[in-house]
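We modelled the chain as a single entity of 226 amino acids. Its sequence is:
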Amino acid sequence: MNEKISKKAVCILSGGMDSTLASYIAKEEGYEIIAVHFNYGQRTEKRELKAFRNVCDDLKIKEKYEIDIPFFSQIGASALTDLSIDVPTSGVEDGVPITYVPFRNGIFLSIATAIAEKEKAETLFIGVVEEDSSGYPDCTDTFINNMNTAINQGTKESTNLEIKTPLVHLMKNQIVEKSLELNVPLEHTWSCYKEEDEACGICDSCRLRLNGFKKANATDPIRYKE
């Protein structure tokens, strides 16, 4: 009897709502998931790592990587990695916000590609959102497509990777609705840029998340500051 050959996907999983939903979609599509999480000196690093581990337990993921990349703090230039820069709380900004971490997704995808080549995976999942995001340039279809071309040019001929972005054209309320449809454990996810105990409710990420739940007529299960 021939053994069934499973298809493998490397999922970049921050522990946030978007990347968690992308991982659940990978599961629904029948992939064996290899989860990758990055500790990069972000303000909520410990809380995001906890979320990642909880989601991996929920998905029963056996193979996972927790990668430390501290140089983002050395580079700075982002409110997420430079404690001298305040996280904006006055509302979602126009243009590229100060919470943008320079070329973060490009670096994440490069490392995930190395893991995928080692693990003989065929797909990379990343939960980027272009339509309803904070205006990050590394969350666009164009960027992802160009990265897909580059990683296949820069890897072995036998490596043929596809980057899947199942959320890229969804609005946040659609992400909430799809998460509820797939029974994603949203109570284990974390989106806040500022706090690790109770979400602040006023940073860009919290505002987008809360607005998504409101438009979806659903209640966010995580705790927010009063």
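As a brief sanity check on the tokenised model: The mean pLDDT is 95. The longest helix spans residues 104-119.
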